[in-house]
């Protein structure tokens, strides 16, 4: 009788088999329940992928290259069910985008997910100062972060950065109007190299102060999302806003931000990577001051 242990049967190398199931998980997340049933090792591979990048299920996300394998609500339910240990989520969740969870629910998530590399918080916070003072944020060290900065500074000592910010290199600020002391606050961040803001959220004076005080800053992207006429993705700001080579503007509508963020978490070319290339070409003069891209 033929069995699966028969050495004469063809088989795939484990590395290739794992890659096939990981691709299937990413491209067809609806198939995850069925993939769990294949074998114990396949379930482990699929679980690693399922919980690695968490972002909302949006209608417009269906056309994205990477569809959500697990939403914020599904993650919360899985944590609250206690069917998996805290270490299970701690070792798997690496990229988290939340917008619909309240403070109590977020506290539950961050109590076990404290090894996050990329974090976006768009949830409406009723008590931001109290929320960002939670003990969970004393150990969380994201590399890439997006949030409303004015909410975070309510829980920040003016003389030192919030613990959440000590390892941040790429920082996306969603505030529509930044406070006057924004340069003083950002200058406290020891690792900051890339900053994005809404173009209308800062004055030229604030921008100049940020560029002067944040000496490690390599790129400052001013985001526009209101222009209706055809417009190049990147363009150089006029001198009245900033003549600094590190400053560029980008057209990016709100739904596109999620797509860009997800692309970056999977190692793709996101707006930060494209901005670095654009700025890199400006320095040796490959791109003229008036050039757009």
Describe the structure.
By secondary structure, this protein is of the alpha/beta class. It folds into two domains: 12-50; 54-282, Leucine-rich repeat, LRR (right-handed beta-alpha superhelix). The chain is 34% helix and 13% strand. The protein contains twelve helices and nine strands. Strands 1-2-3-4-5-6-7-9-8 form a nine-stranded mixed sheet. Helix 10 links the parallel strand 6 and strand 7 (219-224). The longest helix has 14 residues, at 14-27. The protein is globular. The N and C termini lie far apart (65 Å). The mean pLDDT is 82.
Distance between the termini: 65 Å
The number of strands is 9
Q: Rg, please? A: 22 Å
The SS-based structural class is alpha/beta
Strand content: 5-15%
Q: How is the largest sheet built, in terms of strand order?
A: 1-2-3-4-5-6-7-9-8
Text of the CATH class of the largest domain = Alpha Beta
Instruction: Give the number of helices.
Output: 12
Relative helix content: 25-40%
Number of domains: 2
Ranges with pLDDT <50 over ≥5 residues? none
Protein name: F-box domain-containing protein
InterPro entries: LRR_dom_sf
């Amino acid at each position: 009788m033929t069995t699966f242990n028969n050495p004469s049967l063809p088989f795939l190398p484990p590395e290739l088999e794992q890659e096939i199931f990981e691709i299937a998980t990413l491209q067809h997340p609806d198939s995850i329940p069925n993939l769990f049933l294949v074998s114990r090792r396949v379930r482990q591979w699929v679980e690693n992928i399922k919980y690695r990048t968490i972002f909302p299920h949006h209608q417009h996300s269906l056309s994205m290259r990477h569809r959500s394998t697990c939403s914020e609500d599904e993650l919360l339910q899985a944590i609250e069910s206690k069917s998996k240990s805290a270490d299970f989520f701690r070792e798997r969740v690496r990229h988290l985008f939340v917008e619909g969870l309240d403070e109590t629910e977020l506290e539950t998530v961050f109590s076990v997910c404290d090894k996050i590399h990329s974090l976006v918080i768009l949830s409406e916070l009723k008590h931001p100062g109290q929320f960002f003072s939670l003990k969970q944020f004393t150990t969380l060290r994201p590399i890439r972060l997006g949030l409303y900065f004015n909410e975070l500074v309510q829980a920040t000592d003016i003389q030192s950065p919030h613990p959440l910010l000590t390892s941040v290199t790429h920082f996306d600020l969603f505030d529509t109007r930044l406070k006057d002391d924004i340069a003083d606050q950002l200058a406290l961040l020891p690792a900051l190299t890339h900053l994005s803001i809404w173009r209308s959220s800062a004055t030229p004076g604030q921008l100049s102060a940020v560029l002067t005080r944040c000496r490690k800053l390599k790129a400052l992207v001013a985001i526009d999302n209101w222009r209706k006429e055809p417009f190049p993705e990147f363009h150089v700001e006029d001198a009245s806003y900033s003549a600094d080579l590190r400053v560029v503007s980008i057209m990016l509508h709100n739904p596109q931000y999620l797509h860009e963020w997800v692309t970056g978490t999977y190692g793709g070319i996101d707006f930060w990577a494209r901005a670095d290339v654009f700025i890199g070409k400006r320095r040796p003069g490959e791109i003229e001051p008036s050039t757009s891209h």
